[in-house]
Write a structure and sequence with these properties.
It is a single chain. The protein has 541 residues and is α/β, with parallel strands linked by helices. It folds into three domains: 178 residues, Rossmann fold (3-Layer(aba) Sandwich), CATH 3.40.50.970; 164 residues, TPP-binding domain (Rossmann fold, 3-Layer(aba) Sandwich); 177 residues, Thiamin diphosphate (ThDP)-binding fold, Pyr/PP domains (Rossmann fold, 3-Layer(aba) Sandwich), CATH 3.40.50. It is built from 22 helices and 20 strands. The protein has a six-stranded parallel β-sheet, sandwiched between helices. The radius of gyration is 24 Å and the shape is globular.
Length: 541
Amino acid sequence: MAKTTGGSFVVKTLEALGVEVVFGIPGVHNLEIYKALLDSPIRHITTRHEQGAAFAADGYSRIKGKPGVAITITGPGLTNAVTALAGAYHDSVPLLLISSQIPRQSLASRSGFLHEVKDSRGLASSVCKESISVMYPEDISSSLIYAWELSQKGRPGPVHVEIPLDLLSEGFFGESEYRSDCRLKVLRPILCPDDENIDEAVSFINEARFCAIIAGGGALSAGSEITKLAEKIAAPVVTTCAGKGVVDERHALSLGARLNFKVVRDYLESLDLLLIAGSELSPTDLYQYPLKPKGKVIRIDLDPGNFARQPLPDIPVMADCKAAITILADRVSARDARVVEEVSSKVKSIKAAARDELLSSGELGEETYDAVQAVNSIRKALPDEGMIFADMTIPAYVAISEFPSYGPRTFLHPVGFGTLGWALPAALGAKAACSQAPIIVLAGDGGFQFTMEELALTIEENLPLVIVIWHNNGFGILKNIEKKRHFRKPYAVNQNLPNFSLLASAYGIRSFRATSAVELEEALGASLSDRASAIIEYRSR
């Protein structure tokens, strides 16, 4: 009987898990997986760098709602992917990274074997929920299934599985052995809230005159439930960046992603009750300053560790946000219509005050007003279902509050780990997940150069993106910070930029230049209507 190699077993297991797309780069150590992919319905997208592969898997996961999968070799392949794994870990994105490993007999030998790493599991586990080494052929399938499940269980995150070269390349299994092993069922039970805690939460909400909801990335699947609850109890909804769009930001009760504004924080801290759903409220969510509410706090979360974070909850509800909020929305008492009207008016005035605060603070430098105008142009040009993948750049920081998201997973930004170069490869992964949705990449000219090699995929894999490059000749936000810290001149932040029009031409991509918000809107309209990739250079000053 012909034997199935470990590499084939990897691919068959991924097929059984329903994986449709994987991102990666072939290397001499993982070619047995690639040989098996030749005959698989799984689509493989070859990125230009392993970091790009893991970023693309991250973007795919954020849109698809299930783990993105990346494949690398060990050694440089794994180390190149680590930054992307760290970003996914920080932002609670489920991701599966499969890497090869040197043969079992050479492990921990320091023999100088090609791609040897002293402690690859230690390296990966520092930025993953877990790192798993497969040491026996019969454990390949069960390890991958376990990793797939673990990445989505509780608080999501990346999981790494490494498989030694000898297991990948040798034949071990007959077809019948494979099938019986791969029929493990994939189950993810929803964690239901404790009745006693829910009873208390209902009582607290009913007793509170004025309350608000803070929604994070863990509440992305509970948008309609949160909207129903907010309308019933007249609660404004403010989100973290990761939760942006959970409630349509055109809604009269939406405060958007404005946790960093003093006027918003003062309001939240003055209320009788805060309900925090699916967020750790990290320093990056709160811009370093923890909330200090005077009222009661209810926290709903799958991660019990978040119940030990400020603000400490009076009632912790360990549950899936959708399950818990569904019950709350059904059981709480509705507020009087006059209260709803009063709160809606208050929300409108707070949003106006927050805009004034943004423009007057000078926090982002002289380009703030121009960035607001650019973000407005992007919103006008982008269809309701369109997405922005925003890198670490001044207009992206502005867009967190000023770009109105009409639904979840339409504004994506690596605010937690803050990785330059994330947006382009992550957007490519998203496009592979959702081919019809128009996607705009918003990047600074400095950060774009971190991963601009992935432009090749927009043509090679037919993944059209519209890329807006914000010109500030290097690292604009750092220039502002250096100025505030009284550097006698800008240091290590100015760059001689490539000709982005020629770069676009080299990849067969259309290019535009815009010097005003009106020109930007026109270029975006032309690019989006073409449904083809384009680079738009935007220089406002």
